[in-house]
């Protein structure tokens, strides 16, 4: 048991240890699962290391390593026959060899192709690699030296989409967008016989049978064909059943069955002798299936899909085995079993290769319980103690702003997505607007709905807001109108405000309650007189796309707007003119804007997944973008004290960001200063978990301007680094998709995302002080015994 655990330890952390030996202790031990005998026997002796305070995994994960090096999609991966190496082909026109144990690159990339490398494979003896490319050539490489063997193999008149060796290594088969399959002599590179013709569209996949007597092919024409490898004749009729392109085909190890994966999202099993379909299609993927393969013993099938998952299936029953393997952030283009069947390698459009353990697969942390859809709207209570959120396909949730815990039961009643929520100024009530076309009022204390739904809109209600005196509600709708409602009676006040020529996405009251501002899909902003129920002045024009969000400044003198044109604009509320230039920086739609309580700053959330802070006077961005969401930031709001921003996202989470505007204001004036603003470095909701020793991380860094937290970040490879690339900690691949805390994040809702306790961690030149001698025999015995 101890030896097996040690092997898992090496497999999971070899890449980290290879890059920096001290991180055998500093990174590998903290992130070892709680059930690891090796880690438990050692951790007590290393008091000065980080700890996973929340979300530690119980057992070794399936996702062991992430191999990074390619600069574009990785459409093909393959194991060497001895399982020691992995080869990958990429759209960056290179082939890369990797150490399957450590994940390190072996030698330099193999270069020569002048187009995307679509397919790679090892020869049966492991001495050669074959590759097929968009440049219409096939190339043979020496696996030991990386040199190209002979000239490119030419003959195809279209992109070479897949290549494979025959079992004896004497021949190569290739499939192409020229609708043909060709056989080649692996030694001479000469074409053998005529092309195999029969498909009426691109040949996407080809494979030899284990005895080398047959070839199977899958095509864009939705069929699978079986061929005699010797004569080139078709064997049996085309295999039909898929309703879209057949992306991938493979023989079972005994040659009796064929598996196929298709754009129709299904996997099919076929009898190789009769061509008949075996059982029902294997269903579970939610997008195109890009790759399928049998395990070496034929007991399992692995599949990779555009739904970003890898799945394992029981070949006998067709039942999915375990949960999907998740971690890739792009389509899974290729998946392959290792020769011993214990591991899977997958290549993705996210430019990485991931290695998975087939046998284990514990979940990281607890399931995150909260919203099950995008969080469309968030707001702080007036006293800052609570956050309210509204989501698609969900109820309204109330959260403790300090702890992130759910308060009471969800507020239920709407029959559609909750698009907008807001607190009354006294904090006693919540108003919500929904795609069910209604507005509802809720008692915060009891969670009960007050009165009947407010009905009158004929389209989804995109935005709601309370008047400052709490007597009225304003709503903006897809039906192009704005309505004002009496809270006491639930009756509409006056006629709808109608001037916008398209849907109204955002409404807000001025602080004195005399005016309403609205933003619309028609690219305009409109000011309204509440008492007169009439338009004030001409529409504010300047945005070149939908106005998604509007807000008044606290003093009522300015209006801020955010638009799909990726800009934020400031307007003079009295004159109706734009103030200064647009605020630019977001790289996608601006979904939400809000003023700070003192009116000096503006927060914005965007489809570029960032939240940004702006100086309302100068229009300059303050600090770096706040990053952590994995989806669009749909809603932002300031806390009443102005020290935090809350954001809701279509990644189904709510983030609370600590911004400390007083520090940020200092940042904007740092043109004349060379000092940095010192702030605690933490990746947790608890300030007690902050890194105590920041000296080693920042050292004598005085030539940069800003807040310490701007210079500590998590890289794509999992390393948390300082301003000059100093290594603090490495987060292993199994945590990557769930590790969303940043130094700026003070809380993530729902709770359960991994959090780190760095309070006792030593690092840098004094890393060796992490060791604290204790009685080793007792520690080891107790770890093994438990």
Strand content: 35-45%
Which consecutive residue ranges, at least 5 long each, have pLDDT under 50? 361-369, 662-677, 775-786
* Amount of helix: under 10%
Average pLDDT metric: 88
Radius of gyration: 30 Å
Count of strand segments:
61
Which outline best applies?
globular
Distance between the amino and carboxyl termini: 12 Å
**Class computed from helices, strands and strand pairing:** mainly beta
Number of helices: 7
Biggest beta sheet attributes? 4 strands, antiparallel
The strand order across the widest sheet is 2-29-28-27
Explain this structure:
The strands form 17 sheets. The protein has a four-stranded antiparallel β-sheet with strand order 2-29-28-27. A four-stranded antiparallel β-sheet has the order 3-4-5-6, with no helix packed on it. The protein has a four-stranded antiparallel β-sheet with strand order 7-8-9-10, with no helix packed on it. The protein contains seven helices and 61 strands. The relative contact order is 0.09. The chain is mainly beta. The radius of gyration is 30 Å and the shape is globular. It starts with a helix and ends with a helix.
Break the fold down into its secondary structure elements and pairings:
Layout (H helix, E strand, L loop, with lengths): L1 H18 L3 H9 L5 H7 L7 E4 L8 E6 L7 E4 L5 E5 L4 E6 L5 E7 L5 E6 L5 E6 L3 E6 L5 E7 L5 E6 L5 E6 L3 E6 L10 E2 L5 E6 L5 E6 L3 E6 L10 E2 L5 E6 L5 E6 L3 E6 L5 E7 L5 E6 L5 E6 L3 E6 L10 E2 L5 E6 L5 E6 L3 E6 L17 E6 L5 E6 L4 E5 L17 E6 L5 E6 L3 E6 L10 E2 L5 E6 L5 E6 L4 E5 L17 E6 L5 E6 L4 E5 L4 E7 L6 E6 L5 E6 L3 E6 L4 E8 L5 E6 L5 E6 L3 E6 L10 E2 L5 E6 L5 E6 L4 E5 L2 H8 L7 E2 L17 H4 L7 E2 L5 E2 L4 E3 L5 E4 L2 H4 L8 E5 L5 E3 L18 H10 L1
């Amino acid at each position: 048991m101890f030896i097996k655990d040690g092997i898992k330890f090496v497999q999971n952390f070899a890449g980290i240890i290879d890059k920096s030996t001290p991180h055998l202790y500093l990174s590998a031990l903290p992130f070892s699962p709680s059930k690891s005998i090796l880690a438990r026997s050692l951790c007590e002796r290393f008091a000065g290391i980080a700890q996973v305070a929340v979300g530690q995994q119980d057992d070794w994960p399936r996702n062991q390593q992430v191999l990074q090096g390619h600069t574009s999609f990785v459409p093909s991966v393959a194991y060497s026959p001895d399982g020691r190496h992995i080869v990958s082909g990429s759209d960056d026109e290179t082939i890369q060899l990797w150490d399957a144990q450590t994940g390190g690159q072996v030698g330099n990339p193999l270069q020569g192709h002048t187009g995307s490398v679509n397919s790679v494979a090892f020869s049966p003896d492991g001495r050669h690699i074959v590759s097929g490319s968009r440049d219409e050539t096939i190339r043979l490489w020496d696996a030991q030296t990386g040199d190209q063997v002979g000239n490119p193999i030419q003959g195809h008149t279209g992109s070479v989409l897949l290549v494979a060796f025959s079992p004896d290594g004497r021949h190569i088969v290739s499939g192409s967008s020229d609708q043909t399959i060709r056989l080649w002599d692996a030694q001479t590179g000469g074409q053998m016989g005529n092309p195999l013709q029969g498909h009426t569209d691109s040949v996407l996949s080809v494979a030899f049978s284990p005895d080398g007597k047959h070839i199977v092919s899958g095509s864009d024409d939705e069929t699978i064909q079986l061929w005699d490898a010797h004569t080139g004749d078709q064997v049996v009729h085309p295999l039909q059943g898929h309703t879209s392109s057949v992306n991938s085909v493979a023989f079972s190890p005994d040659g009796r069955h064929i598996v196929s994966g298709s754009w129709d999202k299904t996997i099919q099993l076929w009898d190789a002798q009769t061509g008949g379909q075996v059982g029902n299609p294997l269903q579970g993927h939610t997008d195109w299936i890009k790759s399928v393969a049998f395990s070496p013993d034929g007991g399992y099938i692995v599949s990779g899909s555009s739904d970003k998952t890898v799945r394992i299936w029981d070949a006998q029953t067709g039942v999915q085995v375990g949960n999907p393997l998740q971690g890739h952030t792009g389509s899974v283009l290729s998946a392959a079993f290792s020769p011993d069947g214990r591991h899977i390698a997958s290549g993705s459009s996210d430019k990485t290769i991931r290695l998975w353990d087939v046998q284990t697969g514990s979940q990281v942390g607890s399931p995150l319980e909260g919203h099950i859809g995008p969080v469309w709207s968030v707001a702080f209570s007036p006293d800052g103690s609570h956050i309210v959120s509204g989501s698609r396909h969900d109820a309204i949730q109330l959260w403790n702003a300090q702890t992130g815990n759910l308060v009471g039961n969800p507020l239920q009643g709407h029959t559609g997505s909750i698009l907008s929520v807001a607190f009354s100024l006294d904090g006693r009530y919540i108003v919500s607007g929904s795609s069910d076309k209604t507005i509802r009022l809720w008692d915060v204390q009891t969670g009960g709905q007050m009165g009947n739904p407010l009905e009158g809109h004929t389209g989804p209600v995109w935005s709601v807001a309370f008047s400052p005196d709490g007597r009225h509600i304003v709503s903006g709708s897809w039906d192009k109108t704005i309505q004002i409602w009496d809270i006491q009676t639930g009756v509409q006040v006056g006629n709808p405000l109608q001037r916008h020529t398209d849907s109204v996405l955002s409404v807000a009251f001025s602080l004195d309650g005399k005016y309403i501002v609205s933003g619309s899909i028609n690219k305009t902003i409109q000011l309204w007189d509440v008492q007169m129920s009439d338009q004030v002045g001409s529409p504010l024009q300047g945005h070149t796309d939908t106005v998604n969000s509007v807000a008044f400044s606290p003093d009522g003198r300015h209006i801020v707007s955010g638009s799909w044109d990726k800009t934020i604009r400031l307007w003079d509320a009295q004159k109706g003119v734009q103030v200064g230039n647009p605020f630019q920086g977001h790289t996608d739609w601006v979904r939400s804007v809000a003023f700070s309580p003192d009116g000096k700053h503006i927060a914005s959330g965007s489809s570029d997944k960032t939240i940004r802070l702006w100086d309302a006077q100068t229009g300059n961005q303050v600090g770096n973008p706040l990053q952590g969401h994995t989806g669009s930031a749909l809603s932002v709001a300031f806390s009443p004290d102005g020290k935090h921003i809350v954001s809701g996202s279509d990644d189904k989470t709510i983030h609370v960001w600590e911004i400390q505007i007083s520090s940020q204001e200092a940042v904007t004036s740092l043109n004349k200063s060379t000092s940095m603003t010192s702030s605690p470095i933490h990746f947790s909701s608890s300030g007690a978990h902050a890194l105590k020793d920041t000296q080693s991380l920042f050292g004598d860094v005085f030539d940069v301007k800003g807040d310490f937290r701007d210079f500590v970040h998590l890289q794509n490879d999992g390393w948390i680094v300082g301003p000059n690339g100093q290594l603090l900690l490495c987060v292993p691949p199994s945590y990557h998709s769930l590790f969303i805390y940043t130094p700026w994040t003070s809380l993530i809702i729902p709770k359960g995302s991994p959090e780190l306790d760095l309070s006792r961690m030593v690092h840098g030149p004094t890393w060796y002080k992490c060791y604290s001698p204790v009685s080793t025999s007792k520690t080891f015995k107790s770890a093994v015994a438990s």
